[in-house]
TrEMBL record:
Keywords annotated in UniProt: Cell membrane, Membrane, Transmembrane, Transmembrane helix, Transport
Organism: Saccharopolyspora spinosa
Stored Pfam families: MFS_1 (PF07690)
MF terms in GO: transmembrane transporter activity
Signal peptide: none
Transmembrane portions of the chain: 12-31, 51-72, 84-101, 107-128, 148-166, 172-193, 247-267, 273-292, 299-318, 324-347, 368-384, 390-409
Membrane topology: Multi-pass membrane protein
One annotated Gene Ontology cellular component of this protein: plasma membrane
Matches recorded under InterPro entries: MFS, MFS_dom, MFS_trans_sf, MFS_Transporters, Sugar_transporter_CS
Domain Major facilitator superfamily (MFS) profile, chain residue ranges per copy: 13-412
Protein name, UniProt field: MFS family arabinose efflux permease
Subcellular location: Cell membrane
């Protein structure tokens, strides 16, 4: 382990940081290829009946991604960041081919199991690597760029896949995008991306020398899991809010296209509505990540969850393209306030020596939200209807916003210290 010549900060590591932003855009594009097309494929080609069965692919994706997130954090500390990133892209190679040639729905579910592993390994690692590079001062900005690239690519690919599906059919054209992303992502990760674990060691050295010697610097995996899940009010609040945030995304992935199509909207119009949510989410994070470095984390997270609740309520009552467009923009804005800010809060609290593992635990719970959204959305939609499922998500988002406001403490060092010094 050598930290000689290494420096922390965005400017000092701009080339590698920019490369990782591009890699994460390719990671997000792997999800975007499915968003518009798979719910329609389930109905039109595989003739699935019932929303719960249709949402099995979201459930399997969420469970495999959540479990892999936890392993990605541990493996990144043990083996290094780059090997985990490359392994994630290797896992993705068969995914677009399985989606193109799937003879039955079981192949689609299996492809999404592999896609979840791909996302858990690659997205988690690019998050950890960017946090390693920038150090503590610009953590929110770094997460804003990371998540903006990923979800911006989700939006662009979802819209492009919808266009290709409308012009050339549901298969194979939309999934050729994914094949291209795999080739490019694997090539960049294997040949150009550099290891960043020594940057975390450098920050740990600086942090230990500048802070109270009593800070927890060596924790077991079980202790990290407990702190991130239950005992630390900020870490556990972030994990809870992340789960509900991705519950909303998982539900939208499976049910929004069907709701929008139920009033007769064409596939390309459905694709545009589906893309608006992650587009605003992605672009908005360029601002909200940086704002959390100035204003603090807690209030942005609270406001974002309450905004999501309002947007979901509007989606549940709307019946027109224009109303749904407004609601999905509002949903994207609320998510943009939350997403990079939660990751930045984890980075604020967790010590560099166990930060990758804490990120892994947080992302375990956050991405369990995909599975929770699939179950909640499918069961409620089957028992009542699509709109009832969306109302249930709105209620959970509202309750989560209140919980964060009551329980979470401010984590940004500068904002927290300023509050402590105010008489």
């Amino acid at each position: 382990m050598s930290t000689t010549g290494l420096r922390l900060g965005l400017r000092a590591n701009l080339a590698q940081f920019s490369l990782l932003v591009a890699v994460n855009a390719l990671v997000g594009g792997m999800v975007g290829q499915e968003q518009t097309v798979l719910p329609l494929l389930a109905k039109q080609e595989f003739h699935l009946a019932g929303y719960t069965f249709l949402l099995t692919y979201v459930l399997v994706f969420g469970l495999s991604k959540a479990a892999t997130n936890y392993l990605a954090g541990t493996w990144s500390d043990r083996f290094g960041r780059k090997p985990v990133l490359v392994a994630g892209w290797l896992i993705a190679i068969p995914v677009p081919l399985m989606l193109i040639w799937a003879p039955n729905w079981g192949w689609i579910v299996a492809a999404n199991f592999l896609l979840g592993i791909n996302q858990g390994l690659t997205w988690s690692t690019t998050v950890i690597m960017k946090v390693d590079l920038v150090g503590p001062r610009q953590r929110g900005l770094a997460m804003g760029f990371n998540e903006a690239a990923g979800y911006g690519a989700v939006a662009i690919t979802a819209a492009l896949a919808g266009y290709l599906a409308a012009q050339y059919g549901l298969r194979p054209a939309p999934f050729l995008l994914g094949a291209f992303y795999v080739v490019l992502g694997l090539t960049l990760s294997a040949l150009v991306v550099r290891e960043t674990r020594d940057h975390a060691h450098l920050e740990a050295t600086q942090r230990t020398s500048s802070r109270n010697a009593g800070e927890h610097t060596s924790l077991t995996n079980r202790q990290v899991f407990a702190r991130t899940t239950f005992t630390d009010p900020a870490l556990s609040s972030a994990s809870h809010a992340g789960l509900v945030n991705n519950l909303n995304f998982g539900l939208s992935w499976g049910l929004f296209p069907l709701l929008f199509a139920s009033v007769g909207l064409a596939v390309d119009r459905v694709g545009l509505l589906v893309a608006l949510y992650p587009a605003v989410w992605g672009i908005g994070q360029l601002a909200t990540g940086a704002l959390s470095d100035r204003w603090g984390r807690k209030h942005l997270i609270t406001t974002g969850m309450l905004t999501q609740a309002a947007a979901l309520a509007l989606i549940a009552v709307a019946h027109s393209f224009s109303a749904w467009a407004l609601a999905t923009v509002l949903l994207g804005a609320g998510t943009a306030m939350v997403y990079p800010t939660l990751l930045a809060a984890i980075g604020d609290v967790a010590h560099p020596s166990w930060r990758a593992r804490s990120v892994g635990v947080y992302r375990l719970w956050r991405d369990s939200g995909y599975a929770a959204g699939a179950v909640l959305g499918g069961v409620v939609a089957d028992l009542w209807d699509l709109r009832a499922a969306i109302w249930a998500a709105a209620a959970l988002s509202f309750a989560t916003g209140l919980s964060v406001a009551i329980r979470m403490y401010e984590t940004h060092p500068r904002t927290r210290h300023a509050a402590e010094e105010t008489p």
